[in-house]
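(Fold this chain)
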Amino acid sequence: MSVDNRPARAIVFAYHDVGVRCLRVLLDAGVEVPLVVTHADAAGETIWFRSVAALAAEHGLRCVHPADPHDPALLAAAQAAEPDFLFSFYYRQMLKRDWLQLPRRGAYNMHGSLLPHYRGRAPVNWAVIHGERETGATLHRMNEKPDNGAIVDQFAVPILSDDTAHEVFGKVTVAAEIVLARSLPGLLDGSALEWTQDLSQGRYFGGRRPEDGRIPPDANARQIHDLVRALAPPYPCAFLHIGGKRFFIERTLPAPPRADAPGSGLRLLSDGFTLWLIAADGGALRVLAARRDGDSIALNARGFIALFPSRWIAADAD
């Protein structure tokens, strides 16, 4: 409840699956949501996640998707709603001081890592790239620095050695729902405790671009496998270049080294039955799914031989 015995009121900035599930937690708890701010889906982006706008429409909530969330008219409308809280659930833009100081009882963000680790953007993908064995979701107070404020609660989930980032994100979505559902009563009645982050225990990571998915020619097999699963569909995939042509590697599995693998450096090999990716250190990965850029048909062991009769080919060095 709010201080004047009316139901607590929250402005919600939300997007993606985490946004959908956390908005549902608020509604289930009876929190009034006079305004939902989300994003218009970006042209060209693969939309594999659920829609906050659709959920808001189902519940008759006012929902807007401004290009600039700091529009004065939007701020004025939010101020008129007299919110107790502001929540940000996977909203993609930083909110400035005017928004953070607007709610009477604080602004809170749900982040997809175990803060202070993996502050910043794409935390799930970065955690998988670095071979982490766990991650999670953290609810924290917002300030003007990203993922910097005091922690309310967090929940850990495991990362299995062959999990893709998409699979891990599903776990993080559930973790976010758990964290908010068990923290919300304390936020509403004022009993929630917060603790300051030790920022020296983690670091900030920036966003990722499709071009960042190129497999380093000197990476070992484990590093390549982690990159591939971090960028597996629906994300832009890891890739290598052969003869100037891009080949996407969508799924791999580690395997014992192949003593019969010719050549050196990063290379692809077909034995007629299985497609292999051989790392510069000689480590081997079974390629479970691959395709050539521009082709909708999967690239398999036989298709590779049709392209490269020698049965193996080295990746371009640069």
About this structure: The domain at 210-314 is CATH 3.10.25.10 (Methionyl-tRNA Fmet Formyltransferase; Chain A, domain 2). Residues 269 and 310 are 9 Å apart (CA to CA).
